[in-house]
């Protein structure tokens, strides 16, 4: 079983990203569950979402404290959230930033980076005028971890949002997959 923790801000689509990745894993014959943890947060407040992917049913329903992978939707969260807490020794942090992996400043873990915000802006993926990076980060996750195939991610996105919206979001995932920089 692989456990994934997503750190983002309200409105960036972290909960939706966890759901999309769960559906993509399920489409590949895996068991998956996704859920969020937040209170009365508002747009811009830090939120967490969680995802488990396994080869067999999993009865665990708790928050994830020892993730295999951490996705960070906003690099500014590093100043207010200890995103690497509990990350397994061989774990991977996938971060939305224009920085190179070695510039992020996280020591002792593998780091991959992608400019998800830049991709979202280039494709005009905006909600209330703000870039939404969830679909972009699902493509980055596929590339960094290999836990799901890009094809499963883009198919899931197209099923969630048929038509031009789905095509644009699938393109965002594909661009992130192609542009992800692994620091290992």
How would you describe what is shown here?
- The protein is an alpha/beta fold and 184 residues long.
- The protein has one domain: Pyruvate-ferredoxin oxidoreductase, PFOR, domain III (Pyruvate-ferredoxin Oxidoreductase, domain 3), CATH 3.40.920.10.
- The chain is built from five helices and nine strands.
- The protein has helices at residues 14-27, 116-122, 134-145, 150-160, 164-179; strands at residues 2-9, 31-37, 46-54, 69-72, 92-96, 110-114, 126-127, 130-131, 181-182.
- The strands form two sheets. It has a seven-stranded mixed β-sheet with strand order 2-3-1-4-5-6-9. Strands 7-8 form a two-stranded antiparallel sheet.
- The longest helix has 16 residues, at 164-179.
- The radius of gyration is 15 Å and the shape is globular.
- 46% of the residues are buried.
- The model has no long low-confidence stretch (mean pLDDT 93).
Précis, in short:
By secondary structure, this protein is of the alpha/beta class.
Distance between the termini: 23 Å
What spatial order of strands do you see in the largest sheet?
Answer: 2-3-1-4-5-6-9
The overall pLDDT average reads 93
Count of the separate structural domains: 1
Ordered list of secondary-structure elements with their pairings:
Elements: E1 2-9, H1 14-27, E2 31-37, E3 46-54, E4 69-72, E5 92-96, E6 110-114, H2 116-122, E7 126-127, E8 130-131, H3 134-145, H4 150-160, H5 164-179, E9 181-182
Parallel strand pairs: 1-4, 4-5, 5-6
Antiparallel strand pairs: 1-3, 2-3, 6-9, 7-8
